[in-house]
Amino acid sequence: MSMMPSFEVMYSNPVVKLTFDAVNIFGIGEKISVSGYGIYPIQTKFSNVNITDITDVQSITLDTNYQNAWSMFINSSLSGNGLNEGSDFWINTTDSGIKIEFAPALDVDITLKLINIVAQIGPGWIE
Number of folded domains in the chain? Predict the structure, then answer.
């Protein structure tokens, strides 16, 4: 499964509020795979959410093998909300990902939401 991450930017100079939602889907029980031909139901159930607020952020490091895709996504998200690359923020590629640095004049806060969903393949729900 591949989808654009949920990343929201709210900017009112000098305050930058970033919200990043990460959805973690994991299988439980023995019903986590299927093979063959046919139609198979996928049942999902909300498990929990963990919310972490981080204030006074100066930089963000993302570990990823997809530096170019993340760099373009972050640049587009920040630039599309009024921030300027080269004066408000800088994105640099590292050996293991990217690093986003913010201008010292900005007040950057992040809310991270990790949403856990359990999933099973096939009919019936195993607890």
Answer: 1
With H, G, I as helix, E, B as strand and everything else as coil, classify residue 114: strand
Helix, strand and coil content of the chain, in percent to the nearest 5, comes to 10, 50, 40
* Residue 51 structural domain: 6-121
For residue 1, being part of any structural domain is answered with no
| CA distance linking residue 29 with residue 113, whole number of Å | 25
Q: Is residue 127 part of a domain?
A: no
Distance CA 20, CA 73 (A): 13
Annotate 21-35 with b (16+ C-beta within 10 A) or e (fewer). Answer: eeeeeeeeeebeeee
Q: Could you say which residues of the chain have pLDDT below 70?
A: 1-4, 123-127
For residue 102, being part of any structural domain is answered with yes
List pLDDT tens digits, range 20-49.
999 988 888 777 777 788 888 888 889 999
Nearest-angstrom CA–CA distance, 22 and 6:
7
How much is the pTM? 0.80
